[in-house]
Amino acid sequence: MNFWNKITGNDMNADFRRFEARVKKLPLDYQETWEKIKYYMWPHSNLTGRNLMQVLAGILDLLEESAIEGISAQEVIGEDIEGFCTNLIGEENSNSYRNLWRKQLNKNIHKRLGK
Q: CA 14 → CA 4, 11, 103, distances in Å?
């Protein structure tokens, strides 16, 4: 990967195009589940989203294998897609947007309170 593609995110865009092409080959319930997974995963990303690429690739592999075996998406992921994503990422002490904002807010509050 060259420097320019890494800075601009072109490499990630190409990966996402490949992901979406793979998703289009899946049954409809898997496609809907994929959209929900993407929605719930992005709050756990770092500033670039690069930390999610391998995780999303792994989830897509799981969905493809499950579709081949004839297992429904709900059986694979479960009812709680948000919980699945949170458990998969390991939210605790990660550098997600949410945690970075939380740390900054706590820092600002402590500064205002003079601590």
A: 14, 5, 32
| pLDDT, average across residues 10-15 | 86
Cα 41 to Cα 73: distance, rounded to the nearest angstrom: 17
The pLDDT value given to residue 26: 95
Question: Is residue 76 within 8 Å of 66, Cβ to Cβ?
Answer: yes
What the block records as the tokens of 99 is 């945690």
Distance CA 105, CA 103 (A): 5
- Planar angle of CA 83, 36, 70, nearest 5 degrees: 90
Do residues 85 and 37 make contact, with C-beta atoms less than 8 angstroms apart? yes
